Amino acid sequence: MTAVTAQELDIRQIKKLLPHRYPFLLVDRVTHLEPGKSAKGFKNLTANEQFFEGHFPGRPIMPGVLMVEAMAQLSCIALLCTDEYKGKLGVFTGMDGLKFRTMVVPGDRLDMEVELVKMRGPLGKMKCSARVGDKLACEGEISFAMVADEEQNN
Questions:
Q1: Backbone φ, ψ for residue 78 (5° rounding)
Q2: Least CB-packed of 2, 21, 78, 124 within 10 Å?
């Protein structure tokens, strides 16, 4: 089931797996990878992030929906590194039990961890969490579908 054997992925390797690009690429590095099972990674947040300009400009905070998107991207990376899902596109289908615990601000590093809960054919669910230092920022389960990437088929 394993296509990628590296334990870590840098931004160039991530860009080969995900179709996302700035400002929507929300994973800077994968620090641990068990293809098809789990991953750990992070997003460095600077004051230059476009969303900080408009999301409470006087007291910028990262939108919760972008924290969820970052965890979803890391979830897809964990699966896209396998032969079974190589070349597929991970599409967000739902979330369960999502909780936001602390604000994420410029200068923070959002450390994320995802673990496969179940996979049935193209449908899956990941348990996800994001931290800033030792503080839990966000946690919950994300559902997704691994679908054919029409762009790669053209």
A1: -60, -35
A2: 21
The pTM (predicted TM-score) of the whole model is 0.92
> What phi, psi does 128 have (nearest 5°)?
-130, 150
**94: buried, middle or exposed (CB in 10 Å: 19+, 13-18, 0-12)?**
exposed
* Count of domains for the chain: 1
Strands (E), 35-120: 38-44, 88-100, 109-120
Contact 141, 114 (CB under 8 A): no
pLDDT in tens, 13-66: 999 999 999 889 999 999 999 999 999 999 999 999 999 988 888 999 999 999
- Using DSSP, how many helices (H) and how many strands (E) does the chain show? 4, 6
DSSP 8-state class, residue 129 = E
Tell me which of 15, 29, 37, 55 is the catalytic residue: 55
Q: Per the domain annotation, does 5 fall within a domain? A: no
Domain range for 144? 11-153
Q: Is 55 a catalytic residue?
A: yes
